[in-house]
């Protein structure tokens, strides 16, 4: 019976099934400071240990300040960080702490460490765990009580097996466009509920042409389409990434070759069918900008804020609320919307290729007067790589702030926030009301588009800047 990649990985991990549920074996458990304290408390109360310390890895990302990581003034943040440290010590879990050289956003460091491997199951108390699916791993977010269950047993109960949604991306992504534009276009096409109950597999020539960084950007936002996870079959790009010498947990030598032979068997069989299928032509895309308060409220950078008449009746109420919250007049050209803040970072776009794309635009230009631009590497490794390439100097010369690693302004859980009413061009993944700070207004874009907004003070089709 032909199988999809998702079915193959799922089936490999089934330990037992009942009529309604399946017990899955978990290969890797990633942990951060926000969703783990109660899980460790639960273990302590029950007198249990972490079952597989060797498969459990923690870092600090959401609460860490990015101007000076060591200066944690917010009491709740400090307590959460100290609690994670104490829990990792007590339970013997490896922690990639601030200044370890390996700290960073959990979804950025997992792949860097070689923890994220094809065909594995990966969970974390965090919705954007879908990022790791870029390696052909079945990776998804879990709640805190499930974190406790995985800590104690290295297994996880799941309901019925999710459906498989095939998202085929054909053609070639035009110059100036980025993987972020692909995933925004996908969510725009299928809606924030388009992936509900499904695991999305992305495939097709435009996906094959992406680097691992780009594939992670795409899989990262699967959750914003309502999907349980996103997946891309591993190929030579994946194997090359995992073969690099700084991936301590990836198999080495003969074990690596054997693993590759196995990983190659995990692609979706030619005759396998997905439960549903969507096709997007990357060649026809232009840079994407969200205008509203969910990631499907997206338009072309060359377009305008929709008018109510242009929207289907079922979407009009939500749109009217979004116009108001976002302080936007329907019909306004996107290129006429001024911005106050630019945030380049997050587990969506805080990797080295994103910083390169931003630096390419910043090079020889300056942040527009009155605009604040933050560039925040997703990890300490990304930060040192950026230094090695001189990107930090490009950002600083352009008048942007060059920060330390963390979630930063992706969400308002640390000092990096929008002020009420401020409008941001942001490379992150969520734009609901207050996401980047109470009253803050978020427009999601690619790193190149964010940099273009920074230097022009408004949304500017980055292709116009690069064409000069
Ligand atoms: C804090 C955490 C639970 C949350 C998530 O699960 O996604 C955060 O990472 C986010 O992006 O909103
Ligand atoms: S960068 Fe943003 S989306 Fe990613 S884990 Fe941190 S808060 Fe969540």
Automatic annotation (TrEMBL):
Cell wall biogenesis/degradation keyword on record: no
Region (Disordered): 418-441
Coiled coil: none
Lyase among keywords: yes
Required cofactor names: [4Fe-4S] cluster
Keywords: 4Fe-4S, Amino-acid biosynthesis, Branched-chain amino acid biosynthesis, Iron, Iron-sulfur, Leucine biosynthesis, Lyase, Metal-binding
Residues of the Aconitase/3-isopropylmalate dehydratase large subunit alpha/beta/alpha domain: 7-457
Catalytically driven reaction(s): (2R,3S)-3-isopropylmalate = (2S)-2-isopropylmalate
HAMAP family: LeuC_type1
Job of this protein: Catalyzes the isomerization between 2-isopropylmalate and 3-isopropylmalate, via the formation of 2-isopropylmaleate.
Protein name: 3-isopropylmalate dehydratase large subunit
Domain of life per record: Bacteria
Self-association and partners: Heterodimer of LeuC and LeuD.
Chain positions recorded as [4Fe-4S] cluster binding sites: 347, 407, 410
Biological process according to GO: L-leucine biosynthetic process
Associated pathway: Amino-acid biosynthesis; L-leucine biosynthesis; L-leucine from 3-methyl-2-oxobutanoate: step 2/4
The EC number(s) this enzyme carries: 4.2.1.33
CDD domains (UniProt xref): IPMI
Free-text comment on the cofactor: Binds 1 [4Fe-4S] cluster per subunit.
EC top class, as a word: lyase
